[in-house]
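Protocol step 4 of 6: record predicted structures for both targets in the notebook before any analysis. Target 1:
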Amino acid sequence: MLTREDHKTYAQILREELTPAFGCTEPIALAYCAAKAREVLGQMPTEVIIEASGNIIKNVKSVIVPNTGGMKGIPAAAAAGIVAGDSKACLEVIAKVTPEEQKEIAEYLNNVPFSVKAMEDGDKLDIRVTVKAKENSAVVRVSKHHTDIVYIARNGEVMLNEQDDCECAQKLAESQAAAAEQRADRSRLSIEGIVEYAKTADLSTVSDLLNRQVEYNYNIAQVGVKEDWGANVGSVLLDTYGEDVRTKARAYAAAGSDARMSGCELPVVINSGSGNQGITVSVPVIIYAKEYHKSDEELLRALLVSNLIAIHIKTGIGPLSAFCGAVSAGCAAGCAIAFLLGGGIDEVAHTLVNSIAITSGIICDGAKPSCAAKIASSVDAGILGYEMYRHGQQFYGEDGIVSKGVENTIRNICRIGAEGMNGTDEEIIKIMTHCD
């Protein structure tokens, strides 16, 4: 049984995770880092050097940066942050770029030398931006989380550095330790606890987060269906298979991703640091709620299930991996649909195990239009996992990576995503960067 402290922790996790973002979070993190570097420099840079981890390169290489007039890639993201970014806005750093500033971004890219290098050490999520102008220089580093600045220097003078023994580093370490203590303990999450929380939570503590998620993410999904974005996976699904609820759930989630990957200038509410995962955990559940005329309260409680299950899984995998995040999000959406339609802990647990067993082999090869198709497949697996249980069918322990007990199966998936696929990740990055 959940305690009052558990309820408080679950609500805090949602408040930390369900934040708005404008554009794919990896290029936006790069824009954020570059915007901060320009601010530290105190003038417009005349040279920009970008060092990034393989996973950042992978996730920025092929995605359009919003508010740039259709440009994609690492220099475009950095230029947008330098010319028009507001670091105080965090993951909405380039949300308010004007048409005039878009032109300035293009001109800046044409006139200023940019160099991009792979970072040999550091975290899977790691960015270091060095900017120079005449005799001045500034360096800013973001690591582990999309907006966590761990190093700042100007003209060689270190202002923040978590690894040095200087006084400022000690202060930073102390502040980070305090922040870690304030950060909700995700180890308290469990499938049983999540289902109980969804049934009993005081919605007034999280309804603002969930309602914003419904508004933002369903809005971009509708735009994705109605307009021409990316590979138009959502439209293809609807044209091919019709508009039954299962097809619409897949199609609208895919369409939201296609729009977002192709530079649609609308915000989304993210989950586990990812807008695509935020769309995937929410849009299919919204579609089912509309189809079955569920109340607003029933929808919000179901969204507690999908959001927290996705966070529970991704906590063990990490924000960036060769394991496609759409898988955990799509499976979580299937669990939320099971809950929405009257299911309890048994339906949710079996839905999750069944769906994970189906789609756990999908790889992440960066942010780009094919993410939409992977989302459609993952949502389909989530729904199939639920339908299997409804028909008295399931995958059993010792069937491949499935173990007896949902938490044991989750641990297996986390082990694969966080450790087992490191070699796969390296090969994917080599292929994408043409390194033999």
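Target 2:
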Amino acid sequence: MSHVIIVWFRRDLRLEDNPALSAAIDSGASVLPVYIHAPEEEAPWAQGAASHWWLHHSLTALDQCLRERGSYLHICHGATLENLRELIVSTGAQAVYWNRRYEPACIARDKCIKQALRDDGIEATSFNGALLIEPWQIETGQGDPYRVFTPFWRKLRANLQIEAPQPAPQRIETKKAEASVALNSLNLRPKIPWDSEFGAHWLPGEFGAHESVQQFCEAALRDYKVERDRPDHFGTSRISPYLHFGEIGPRQIAWMLDQYARNESSAVLHEAAEPYLRELGWREFSNHLLYHFPHTPEKPLQAQFDAFPWAPDDAVALARWQRGQTGIPIIDAGMRELWRTGWMHNRVRMLVASFLTKNLRQHWRHGARWFWDTLVDADLANNTQGWQWTAGSGADASPYFRIFNPVTQGYRFDPDGAYVKRWVPELADAPLKLVHEPWLDPALLQRTGYPSPMVDLAATRTAALDAYQRMRNV
């Protein structure tokens, strides 16, 4: 009888280029693919509602892919170690394989599980299925973690080998176990259907991930460097949720970009791919920071920001920001896009974050928590790095004096007003000269019901700069 290996799926919901799965199959073992739902083990950053929607559909897609290969996804609910031990007993498994995660709570949990299984006499082995390089494998010349992106990326890029991914298995010899719970019993889909439009924008699963990359290569790669900041255009890959759930990995994306450029015999496309690879580098950098500075989801990386004079918590102002009722068109467009699709263009993410932390001077943690619950790509490393960057408190951060003006940003990156008009229908018929400044015509506001600006942009910019100066003087 062949030996049995449990492959514990987590944020690696794919069959192609899955190191843990490939290692188990290559060993000649019978494999039991397992997903264990234990959100309490990831506290205080258990997945939010939008991520749960994606997870439900991604697990459905993974199970279908496994069944096409003679296998299935065994689902458990509850304490991970307890479930693994029960499965080991029922299947006679000799080993558990998984791909690593890098959130602080998961690192601590996984270390305990690995040690407990080894104490039980079970082989417990983890792999890198999520990153181009492990966070502990890259350091400065002084042996310290990087805190600035450019030298980090320069070193990573110089050592990056773009190689063909491991193919998905054609057949998976499977050891079945008893009492897999039904996916619906996990209650991942919301009871109130606020997610009703998500399905029109996304196709969770490995197939959807590959389709998104292919579509990006064909339609947007060539002009990515100049188009990526335009929320009114299809200029980005929208691959972030697929990366978050591991339906595709960064090594696969790098290979697909390289092969597409080679097939097109285009030096232009090879050059165009570099800015996109650099964005993958930001994802690596964010995970590097989270690993080495695990306090950053709650506390500023730069200790001086402990003294920053945030405004008192304002529930009313926060609610207006969350619902896209600030009276600043591009801010409201972004927040409404987020609510209806579970996603927001990166340029607009910076604008709404700047508005919250600088014009409203609300703590960046309020924004991070809202994004965490409403983004389908809510990734702890990226979310933390993005909010701390905008607030000025993180590594390689935006300078404290950089306060985005959403009006000038709107005219620059949404020059025809198409993005605003799509998500803020009150302004669909507004003349272009007013679409980013509708308050210049009070009659327009009265006629459409669109709100007046909740703050004076110039005055709040001055107040934010004064607050930063007070902090620097402490």
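Step 5 preliminary note on target 2. The first strand starts at residue 4 and ends at 9. The first helix runs from residue 19 to 26.
Proceed to step 6 after PI sign-off.
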